[in-house]
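Before drawing any conclusions, I needed to go through one protein's amino acid sequence and its C-alpha cells, quoted below without any editing.
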Amino acid sequence: MTYKAYRWLAFDASVDIRISPDKDETLYGFRGVGKIPDMPNYASWRVNIGMHIILLPTRVYKVSERDILMQKAEERRKLFEKVIREQREAESAEKELERIKAERRKAERELERLRNILEQEAKKKQQEKKQQEPKPDNQ
C-alpha cells in the first residue's frame, strides 16, 4: 500500500506471509552457500515500512497561462480587499470626527448658556447693590 502525501513524498507499507510449506529445498552444493543451523529457509512473515522522498524534480513543472492569470487575480483581490478595508477605516474615522465635533458644539453652547446665566446674576447683584446704597441728600 502506498500513500502519496505530496508530489515529492510517499509512504509505503506492506506485509508478506509465506503460504508454502516450511520444507527447505535449497541446494547447498555451491561454494559460499551454506546452511545456517536453526534458521528457517524463509521467514514465515515479514513487514516492510518505507518512505520515498524526491529531492530534485524529475521533470520541469510547467506553469500554464491559466495559473499565471489566477495568481495575478489573487494578488489583485488581496489589493482590493486592502483598499476596501482602509476605506472603511477612513469612513469610521470620519464618523468619529463628526461625533467629536458635534460634542464640542454642544459643549460650547452649554458654556455660552452658563456664561449668560453668570452675567445675568452679576448684573442683578450690581443692581441690588445700587438699590441698597443710601442716596445722597442734595440739601
About this structure: The mean pLDDT is 85. The radius of gyration is 49 Å. The first helix runs from residue 65 to 132.
